[in-house]
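Usage example:
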Amino acid sequence: MTSIATLGSHCSLQVLKGAKDEDLKTILVCEKKRERLYRRFPFIDKLIIVDSFKEVIDQKCQSILEKNDAVLIPHGTLIAQMSSKEIESIKTPIFGNKWILRWESDRNMKEKLMREANLPVPKPVSNPKDIDKLVIVKRQGAAGGKGYFMAANEEDYNTKRNQLVSEGVISKDETLYIQEYAAGVLAYLQFFYSPLKEELEFFGVDQRHESDIEGLSRIPSEQQLKSDKVPSFNVIGNSPLVLRESLLDEVYNMGENFVDAAKKIVAPGMNGPFCIEGVYDENAKFTSFEFSARIVAGTNIYMDGSPYYSLLFDEPLSMGRRIAREVKTALESNQLDKITT
Ligand code: AMP
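Running the assembly step on the lines above writes:
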């Protein structure tokens, strides 16, 4: 019997609950330290206990997954903890397109794909010397905003970078990515593209709450100026957002452009869930600084269905369950190779 497997973190609960609701077997690759937590949830049929998620590429773990006809659902933890090469070497079928995950992890490839999709991206700054506007400095990969910082000029950049190196937050020879800071209302646009139906669905929007940039905005400027702490963008949680209806047409266009660009650049394209992340400015113009080519943790806020999915489906459907349904439909029509890599 086909099972749905994922790593115990990020959005694993909604993914496995959704799979169970679709009558599929569920497997969690679980770190020992989290076993007690995940045993609380009766919809998890099997736990593969590991010391570290890296073991998912080991023969032992791979053969258990193979025996259980598993389809592995990738999420942010897989990307954060493994190199693209390691992910690509996984033998278990991965839901969506594992090759596009490299494009998510590498900042330069990411920018290329976003430009190909005509997404309005903030200007990159290749040399700290050229910083003449407020910029945000980022690390490679899905670091979840940890160790990011803002800088107004080269001197500011060097001071903050050195401080973070001395605090051990970033390493001395780490290549950082600098990009103009885009101010506005945060909006993380969540989509699902079905290669079976050849249709794009808009699922929902979330906002991220990031510490301690958010904490900083809650104290008066007098205290802000006295603080020598470099505020980080470490994601703590997410909250829902609905957009003005007049923005929806453009949202669908951006999603479709992204799907088209991915089809051209990285076969078999952007299959399954993905997210376009950015801000709306005062003219409701969107600037996109990021995409995720797999399910995002922001979908956790809609475990019981999202406002936009309630317009498309007559039942509450989480993103996890939507994925499981795609797997089920593919199994029934013998098209699993169309939705996995
Ligand atoms: P990322 O890893 O690119 O998703 O960035 C983490 C967080 O940093 C985002 O959720 C935003 O709050 C912030 N951020 C990233 N890039 C920009 C940008 N160009 N302008 C403004 N905020 C940004």
